[in-house]
Amino acid sequence: PSRPLHLDIGCARGRFLLAMARVEPEHNHLGVEIRRALVNAAEAEREAMGLTNLRYHFCNANVSLETWLAALPQGQLQRVSIQFPDPWFKKRHHKRRVLQPSLLLAIAGALTEGGAFFLQSDVLAVIEPMVALSEAAGCFARADGDARPWLTSNPLPVPTERETLVLSQGLPVYRVLYRRTGATPLPPGELEQW
User: Fold this and answer.
1) In the prediction, which pLDDT does 86 show?
2) Exposure string for 43-76, b = 16+ CB within 10 A, e = fewer
3) Could you tell me how far CA 109 lies from the centroid of its own chain?
4) Which tens digit of pLDDT belongs to each residue from 154-188?
């Protein structure tokens, strides 16, 4: 329980985390997903592999994670990743997108100073609002002061299945890696209005 924690929000079938748990045995890894069937399949595969530093849970990140993140021991959450989230293209469905102001503030409150917040997508119209929201919060800085709009390679040691597919088709992947600064995030009311 005291190991550093990596939280992957929207883990789908969980294969990325299966590989990460083997590559980073000194970390605990938690994948959360809104589709119960995918969580059940991922958890069965984890059990079959005997991985004790990995778990999957069914949840709606924007409903369930805030309370859980607030209860984490300070300093335990070292990395959060949101990779290739569902795009919800129609404007009336934007409220269903995974990175909402309240979730971002909960992540900021739990993520240790210097902790990593990694976002990637193959849909520019999805990642641009995520980046704008993250930067508006005022408590995340691009890792190593990177001024480029997008990272050219994945800073994590394992790609997701979607990332591998997109790159094999010669399509772009948009990535950004933030570090949690010591700055206080915007108050909820101000960020919600954003």
Assistant:
1) 74
2) bebbeeeebebbbbeeeebbeebbebbeebeeeb
3) 14
4) 999 999 999 999 999 999 999 999 999 999 998 87
Rg from Cα positions in the chain = 16
Question: What is the pTM (predicted TM-score) of this model?
Answer: 0.92
Q: Which amino acids are annotated catalytic? A: 86
List of residues 6+ apart from 20 with CB closer than 8 A: 6, 8, 27, 29, 54, 156, 157, 158
Sign of CA dihedral 30, 32, 36, 39: negative
